[in-house]
Structures are given as structure tokens and as C-alpha cells.
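Why this split exists: single-chain examples teach little about how molecules sit against one another. For that reason, every record in the complexes split bundles all components of an assembly together and asks for one structure covering all of them. Below is a record exactly as it appears in the raw files.
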Amino acid sequence: MPRGSYAPFQPARRPGRRPTARPRYRVLVHRQYAELWEQLPQRVGLESALQFWDHIADTPGQPPAVGSASILRGKRGEPQAPGFSRTVHYEISGAGRINYQYHDAYTGGARGDPHRVVCILSIDLGSH
Amino acid sequence: MDAVIYQPSDLNRRYRRVLQDARASVARIRDNDGTALVVVPERRFEALRSVADAAANLAGLARALREGRKPAVADLGTWTWLRAFDADDLATFVAEVQEALVLASREESAGPLDETLRAWRITAEQAHDPVRDAILLGTHRPEDFVEAKRPV
């Protein structure tokens, strides 16, 4: 079909930043919330889910470019093992809230070599 | 220089000067019946009100902790959400809020206080769900975690 000068549609860019070739952080999720993690794009939208992923996979310890984050206070904010960060509370979208901690030289689990990891402790998607 | 005390008639004749003083810090006005009034920037007023509210709430909580008893709802003032915390966390809370109160008073800004209270309130909300709360209060066990895939 010949193309005219009017072309109302063009490829849309992926929401958020371009994904890095390899995330800096390995991302783990607590078994209790593994199913909810799978549902995240449907529940909060792919754009918000990818923004959160980009944040934790790359710069989990910095203020997010989109959304907001704070540190939990008291015992609920304490590192769960030596080397872990305090608990970061990320407000993903509307009533969506995710708590996580990160570690820059994690040696737990099957992989014994020190590597960066983010552990998602809980996901709360409210009444979405 | 002594502070100027304006008369009610100045609100008409010298209103620009009254507003100028109020914006700079405070404008004092003496009403015809002798009542003293002040006009201050809203930001400053809100900061003073936040500090006063927080100080009143904090007094009850601090007294209960000093007496070594679990704070009753009445001790918490408007901060009833603090029931989620144990004595150690409440002691940490008191210390943080005291520091935020000093900052808020000195800087005449409710910002530091609001920020501290918001973070603690968010934390209290996390305790509502017993499963989530147990995980947040627990220790790390590698076997509890599985790989999370990038959302698609």
C-alpha cells in the first residue's frame, strides 16, 4: 500500500528510561508475594511496573525519578541481615506500596558469589 | 527599633505598610477594645500550629514512657496510630519527633516535623496486615525468596 504524507501513527517509545543491557541488581521477591508480583503490570499498569523495575534494578538506594520512596522507621525499617539496607517503602501508583531492602554484596541463596540484590519484602496493591 | 502597633484605621490608610510588616515577619494590630492581634505569613502560622499540636501529643506519650507503662489511647492524643509500635520503637519515635520539633521551631517551617510524622505513620500502616508485618519484623532467610522477572 503506498504511503501518503499523512501518517498518524508511529512507533511508541517504551515508557520510562531505556532498559540497561543487564540490571545492576538481581531482584528477588518473597514467596508470599510472588503471585502478586506476576500480577503487578495488570494491577498498576505496565508503565508503573516498569518504572519500579528500572528503579530497583538500577538505583534502589536513590530517590526514584518517578513515584516516591521513604524509609520505614523503627524495627520495621531495620536491615534484616548484615549488609542489607534499611527498608525502603516505594509508592508505586495510587494505593500500591512495595517494601524492599537491598544488599551490594549478597552471598545468600544458590549463588555464592557476592553480588547486588534487591529483596522485595512485601507488595500491597490495596483495592486496585 | 520598637515594633509598630497599628490601629484598625491603619488597615485602610496604611494597608500596604501593614502587609509589608506581616510578610516580613509580623504585623501587630490593637483593636478598639484593646485586643491585640497579629498577622503573620500562613507558612509561619501553620508551623507554629504544627509544633503546638505535636508538643501536646508528645507530652502524653513521653509521660507514659517515663512512667514505664504502655501508653493508653488517651496518652497518644491524635496519634492513635502509634498503637502499632512497641516501647522501643516509641522511644525512638519520641527522640526523632523531639529533634524535628526543634528544627521546625527554629526554622519556623512545619516541613521537618511533617516529614518525620509521615514516615512513622506510613510505617504504622504496614503493621495492619499480620503477614506483611511478620515479614517486616523478621530476619532474612534466603529460602523465603524467589527470582522476580522483569514485568512484561
